[in-house]
Design goal:
Length: 429
Amino acid sequence: MQENSFDTIVIGAGAAGLMAAWELAQTGRKTAVIEAKDHVGGRAHTITDKNFELPVELGAEFVHGDLELTKLLLKKAGVEQYTVKGDIWQNEGDELDKQSDFIEDYSALNKKFKEIKEDITVAEFIEKHLQGKEFEEARFTLKNYVEGYYAADTHKVSTLALKEELNSSSDKQYRVEGGYAKLVEYLHRQCKERGVQFFLSNPVKEIKWKEDAVEVIAEQNSFISSKILVTVSVGVLQSEAIRFSPAIPEKMDTAKKLGFGPVIKTVLQFDEAFWKKKEFTQQKNLDKLSFIFSKTVIPTWWTCYPKNAAILTGWSGGPHAEEIKDLSNEEILQKALESLSEIFNVSVNLLQLKLKGWHIANWVTDPFSCGGYSCEVVNGKELKEVVRQPIDNTIFFAGEGLYDGPEIGTVEAALYSGRETAHRIIASS
Ligand SMILES: Cc1cc2nc3c(=O)[nH]c(=O)nc-3n(C[C@H](O)[C@H](O)[C@H](O)COP(=O)(O)OP(=O)(O)OC[C@H]3O[C@@H](n4cnc5c(N)ncnc54)[C@H](O)[C@@H]3O)c2cc1C
């Protein structure tokens, strides 16, 4: 076999690509991973910064429940998770109020969910089923949840998928000790030990293919293989940055209908946890602050609680990210400080003095992500199935956005999809 000739080429070294490459290499297949960026991990990207008290998660941060594959891999890697605890607060105007959960009074909302027989968007659901004063709170928290947590537009998201996710999701949330980088490093190590070859800083431009014969043209060089697995995000697929020859219009047109939400993350290190000082919180005790929701430009914030660190993370998802996506990082920082100034009783000038470090992760303008993560649109399951179907047992697709299960938009979804598709490739050879 020639130097740049492989049994299988995986495009993308995110969680899905790494998991798939590991599975493929375990069966003795000569496997390559071609990655556009200079590092592996994709949207699971932890960095260390000497100005920050803790590793900074620019992408994935939470483990949303006791997730089978994530838990298993962390255990194998000898990496601990710790439980996310603390209080949830809501800010409106000058008011700071404690919330009992991410979605208040879920049982009343669930009763309303049961009224729907056919799938509709969340915006239609709010319009048709949540009218009247008694649902004011439910309307606010549901919209916040979809735009924030789901990073999605209520006009696109499927109510039935949201209901399924809310009913199956665990109350438990964890963080990975040392950050998701620990999981990524473990997968990367496992791949390399099994002979997977990595080609970083090498964006793929074109895939020329016929049955069992693929030529991959990347920025630095070309490769050949009999099978190819594409794990780039749905956003990248939709951007058509990778050309297929011959073209695959059915896949591309269907991929364009999938939901993929914009996300911008703002991580700020301060000299002290000023939100624990009652002069900034209308005399309320925010010592255990975990999440705070507001109506400011950057509406959602969280601390590192239960870890003791003066770090705040701002979250802009869905329409909130659209609003600021074209601003420079400095301008987004300014919006972040203005938002915090509105939420807490503290001036922008003082916040500027207290700021010791900052990172803006604008995943929307990142050409190798083109957004944050997927959300399920109406009829999303059928659309994903169309994209997932291999072409002539030669071109395969995987990744978080094509996963069919309840853990939508997560690292678990990516790992699961990568593993499942690798098994499909193995079975087809
Ligand atoms: C801000 C943010 C917060 C998140 N928070 C959480 C969370 O708390 N918990 C959770 O479970 N999940 C979270 N997620 C989602 C999670 O990060 C993703 O679901 C998961 O990491 C996706 O993995 P993937 O392998 O499918 O895709 P990716 O990680 O996107 O991997 C695809 C890879 O393909 C590469 N690529 C793109 N184009 C090309 C090209 N032309 N040539 C070669 N390579 C290319 C990319 O650089 C990337 O490395 C978050 C995501 C974001 C953005």
